[in-house]
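Appendix B. One record, verbatim.
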Amino acid sequence: MKIAIGSDHGGYNLKDVIMKHLEKKGIEYEDFGTNGSESVDYPEFGMKVAEAVKSKKFDRGIVCCGTGIGISISANKVPGIRCAVVTDTFSAEMSRAHNNANVLALGERVIGQGLALKIVDVWLEAEFEGGRHERRVGKISDIEVKYSK
C-alpha cells in the first residue's frame, strides 16, 4: 500500500507523527507538504494529496489540518475523492467499509496523537464491503458528474 500524506501548519505535527508510524509499520508514503509550522493555506495541500490519489499512483491519502474540516472540503473538490473527517475508530472503519473513503482527514487540534494513530490503523486495515454500498458510492459519483458539466 502506498499513501499520499499532507497537511497545513495546523496539522503539521500530527502529520509528522503519522509518517513515523507508517515507517514503523513498513507502509510506503510520500509527503506532499507542508514542511513546517509556518502559516500556509490548507486547500493547496488537500488538493495535492487528492490529485495524487486520483492519479492512482497512491492507494489512499491522509490529510491533516487543525480540525480536519477545511482540508477535507478541499480534497473532496477533486472528482473521485471521498475524504472523510474522522474522530473515532468506528467512523474510521465505516468510512472505508460503507463509503469507500480513499482519503482520511484528521484534526490535530481535535484528537490526540494516540487516538489518531489508532484511527489510521483501523482505516488502513478496513476494506470496502461493496454490495449495497457500491450502489450508494456510485450515486455519489453521479452527483460529481452532474455538477461537473
